[in-house]
Amino acid sequence: MTGKPLTGRLALVTGGSKGIGAAIAAGLRLDGATVVRAARSLPEDAPAGEVHLAVDLESDAGLGALIDRLGRIGVPDLVVSAAGGFSLGGIEDVGVEVLDRLYQINLRAPYELARRLLPPMKARGRGRHILIGSIADHLALPGNAAYAATKFGARGLHEVLQAEFRGSGVLCSLVSPGPVDTPLWDPIDPDRRPDLPSRAAMLRPDDVAAAVRWIATRPPHVDVPWLQLGPA
Ligand SMILES: NC(=O)c1ccc[n+]([C@@H]2O[C@H](COP(=O)([O-])OP(=O)(O)OC[C@H]3O[C@@H](n4cnc5c(N)ncnc54)[C@H](OP(=O)(O)O)[C@@H]3O)[C@@H](O)[C@H]2O)c1
Fold first, then answer.
1. How many CB atoms are located within 10 Å of the residue 92 CB?
2. Among the atoms of ligand 1, which is closest to the Cα of residue 22?
3. Whose CA is closest to atom 7 on ligand 1?
4. What three-state secondary structure class fits 141?
5. Is the pTM higher than 0.90?
6. How large is the angle between the packed helices 96-103 and 145-165, nearest 10 degrees?
7. DSSP character for 203?
């Protein structure tokens, strides 16, 4: 693994079982990092250089188990919060139970992980926190109220983290993609919806992974506060 830019680095990727998080985890591994993937549906057996943690990040027990297990592995150099949920529908059709669920995974989980993981990174004087936002963290789109409420909140979290950790060596980045062809769209089936982009017109998970890998491999004097990407 010598000669790879992230050799010797420890990366946590939530949502590492599929979609964007899985592509990020695979990419960071190619760059030489030891990668801890966290999601509900991961097999316990992991290939060399990886650790799989099957945890539900909507629960305090799952968050606690992840933090405990990671604590026994080491202080991460890179924390990528990519686990997330999505919903689509006008506000009259989307109940608060949907908002509650999206809040748990899109905002509460990254908040708790940042709260517990960034202080040790600060004490060491080095690290990056990369939060996967969305076009819906800065743009109001119809049918997106519950999702956008959590993603605008995640952007708020990112901006405060940036302010609180400035000068500490811990750098915080928000990556805000437009639509990406992942399993997140399976229940919606956008190819049958003329109001949505077709799957072929979306970004690929590797496009987002390339952005994260680029940030993760910048030297420590380079801060990347916000990176937006979307289909051409
Ligand atoms: N796809 C898009 O168009 C798009 C665009 C912009 C931003 N994003 C954002 O990108 C991130 C990843 O989305 P994606 O498209 O890759 O979605 P995806 O294919 O549905 O994958 C979601 C990931 O989150 C994990 N996850 C969900 N709930 C979890 C829970 N309670 N505990 C632990 N892990 C959980 C899933 O793992 P398990 O099911 O195994 O638990 C999976 O690994 C999300 O934050 C999403 O908002 C997506």
1. 7
2. 43
3. 134
4. coil
5. yes
6. 30
7. B
What local confidence, expressed as pLDDT, does residue 167 receive?
Answer: 97
CA of 3 to the centre of ligand 1 (A): 31
Q: Which uninterrupted H or E stretch holds 228?
A: strand 226-229
Helical axes 60-73 vs 109-124, angle rounded to 10°: 20
pLDDT for 44 equals 84
CB atoms within 10 A of CB 21: 27
Residue 191's identity, in one-letter code, is D
Tokens 């506000």 sit on residue: 91
Q: Which atom of ligand 1 lies closest to the CA of 183?
A: 19
Of the residues 147, 152, 165, 185, which is catalytic? 147
> Does 1 have pLDDT greater than 80?
no
pLDDT at 2 > cutoff 70? no
Note the Cα 6 to chain centre separation in Å: 18
Mutation choice for ligand 1 from 13, 18, 55, CB with most ligand atoms inside 8 A: 18
User: What domains, with CATH codes, occur in the chain?
Assistant: 10-229 (3.40.50.720)
Pairing between β-strand 10-14 and β-strand 78-81 as defined by DSSP bridges: parallel
Q: What are the pLDDT digits (tens) for 5-46? A: 999 999 999 999 999 999 999 999 999 999 999 999 999 899
Q: Is 147 a catalytic residue?
A: yes
Backbone angles phi, psi at 129, to 5 degrees: -115, 120
162 has a pLDDT exceeding 60: yes
Q: Quick one: tokens of 164?
A: 């609180």
